[in-house]
Design brief:
Blueprint: H1 4-16, H2 34-42, H3 100-112, E1 116-117, H4 118-127, H5 149-152, H6 154-170, E2 177-182, H7 188-196, H8 201-205, E3 207-212, H9 216-225, E4 228-233, E5 236-241, E6 248-251, E7 263-268, E8 277-282, E9 285-293, E10 299-303, H10 311-319, H11 323-327, E11 331-334, H12 336-352, E12 354-363, E13 372-375, E14 378-380, E15 390-392, E16 395-396, H13 397-407, E17 411-418, H14 419-426, H15 428-436, H16 441-455, E18 457-459, E19 472-474, E20 478-485
Parallel strand pairs: 2-3, 2-7, 3-6, 7-12, 12-16
Antiparallel strand pairs: 1-9, 4-5, 8-9, 8-11, 9-10, 12-20, 13-14, 13-15, 17-20, 18-19
């Protein structure tokens, strides 16, 4: 339950939101005896009556040692033993059907003469600078490969805006605050947040917007979604969002975002795309699952024959789990990048103040075997045509909590709670009622469908359309967690 002042603030905000291999050295042959060399130069060698068995055009005929007869007056004959020379297979000039990313992955495995981790495979598939899934395309929305909550309804971004404004008030309404979104997608969430908070001038004037995005393609999409324009700034220029007048900057990683100001971090469906290591229980203990090449040159999963460096992270994760929890699983997924990212967020919040909101699908405990691939809104094989499908895994919220608490004693962790509880407590019910009063019947149907997808559980009971289009609620599948500086108290609505 919310305290009465907080509940009143939420109700007020909801009703005022605006907007509808190494080379081997070969030994040199011994020097030729001078007398033999002189005879060799003055008397032509007679060809061998039988050609060498592996003679090849263009190959050096002096590759072997000369054999000389015992008679000094006899003619010198030379034979070459090529039996120990490498005979390369015939080279095929037929074009390969493999994509550039597939060729790259295969070359890594062949160069190392062994498999790569699932984490390395996942990272190459998603963020390879030339061919990664996220790098050169817009993958979001109906025309993409999957839909996220901000694409479902404007209400999601608006409610995140309510949370951010409440946190800003708990921070003491600082005049400047870094608003950081990790993996902003198309920028839809942030655009709805800014539109919804447009009437709260002091809040929007305080914002410095920082987007952590590695895809040049998506950076351009975000630029347009946020109605950005470049304007003169001293001897240079700066980018400003015309939705609220706040400056906007893009960064490849969180470390590049300037520190020193209070911070609000939003990580919606970001952790699920971080590369994971998979481990499987075997007779010799926990073994890492790897990606290798089969005899037909297709990708396959194998178990590492020896311990891998990432076992240190498995040991760390198991330390946070009970023996009962470990006894129940045959597979464990560990995400070192998630641990490291959480530590970075925590260090920033501890030093500068503020908080972070993490919303993703996952569970508050060990994740077993959740890695999945989605292409054009359908599940596909994880190893099929790498780079053409999104890869993601359940988020281990317990690991995030332990990582944060071990990183600093100046923060507190709250949740996770379900997305349905989170949005409901922030006032989404009030918001949908307000929107339904001023819309057409077609818009109302879209509102009800979007609302159910955000807070519902399972199939929508009111749906009367085609069965294959029944709205599925994400309200209990997605969880919300907050990490905040202890000085600010408990964040709404935890």
């Amino acid at each position: 339950m919310l305290r009465k002042p907080a509940a009143a603030l939420l109700r007020s905000l909801a009703s005022h939101i605006s907007g509808g291999a190494r080379a081997t050295r070969q030994p040199l042959p011994p020097p030729i005896v001078p007398s033999i060399l002189a005879r060799f130069l003055s008397t032509p060698a007679s060809p061998s009556s039988t050609p060498p068995p592996s003679s090849a055009a263009g190959r050096d005929e002096d590759g072997g040692l000369p054999e000389v007869s015992g008679d000094a007056g006899a003619r010198l004959s030379i034979s070459v033993d090529r039996s120990g020379l490498y005979n390369p297979p015939d080279h095929s000039h037929e074009p390969s059907s493999d994509s550039e990313l597939v060729k790259h992955l295969k070359s890594i495995i062949k160069f190392r003469s062994g498999p790569i981790s699932v984490a390395e495979y996942m990272e190459e598939v998603l963020t390879n600078p030339q061919s990664g899934f996220y790098i050169n395309r817009d993958v979001f929305g109906e025309s993409g490969d999957f839909i996220t909550s901000p694409e479902v309804s404007q209400m999601f971004g608006e409610m995140i805006g309510v949370w951010a404004m409440c946190l800003w008030e708990q921070m003491g309404k600082p005049a400047k605050v870094n608003l950081i979104e990790l993996g902003p997608g198309r920028g839809t969430l942030l655009a709805d947040l800014l539109r919804g908070s447009a009437k709260f001038i002091d809040f929007t004037k305080a914002l410095n917007i920082n987007l952590v995005e590695c895809s040049p393609t998506l950076q351009k999409v975000q630029y347009n979604t946020l109605k950005c324009e470049d304007e003169p700034d001293g001897d240079g220029k700066r980018t400003v969002s015309k939705l609220c007048g706040a400056p906007v900057c893009w960064h490849a990683s969180l470390e590049q975002v300037p520190s020193g100001s209070p911070t609000i971090v939003i990580a919606h469906e970001f952790y699920d795309a971080l590369p994971i290591h998979q481990f499987q229980k075997a007779s010799r203990g926990w073994c890492e699952k790897m990606v290798d090449l089969a005899e037909d040159s297709s990708f396959r999963f194998v178990l590492s024959p020896q311990p891998t460096a990432s076992l240190i992270y498995l040991s760390k994760r198991c330390k946070w789990a009970s023996s009962e929890e470990l006894d129940k699983v045959e597979h464990i997924e560990v995400c070192p990048k998630a641990m490291e990212l959480t530590e970075q967020i925590t260090d920033r919040i501890s030093a500068d103040g503020g908080g972070a909101l993490i919303i993703d699908y996952g569970k508050d405990g060990i994740i077993s075997d959740s890695l999945q691939a989605i292409r054009k809104h359908k599940f596909v094989d994880i190893l099929d045509d790498p780079g053409s499908a999104d890869l993601s895994a359940y988020v281990d919220f317990a690991s995030i909590r332990h990582s944060a608490l071990e990183a600093s004693g100046d923060i507190s962790v709250h949740g996770p709670i379900t997305q349905s509880q989170f949005l409901g407590s922030l006032g989404i019910n009030f918001r949908v009622e307000a929107l339904l009063r001023n819309c057409t019947e077609e818009q109302a149907e879209s509102m009800r469908t979007g609302y159910w997808r955000l807070v519902g559980d399972g199939e929508a009971p009111f749906w009367e359309g085609p069965d294959d289009q029944t709205p599925i609620g994400m309200g209990t599948r997605y969880l919300a967690m907050a990490i905040v500086n202890k000085k600010q108290g408990t964040p709404v609505p935890f």
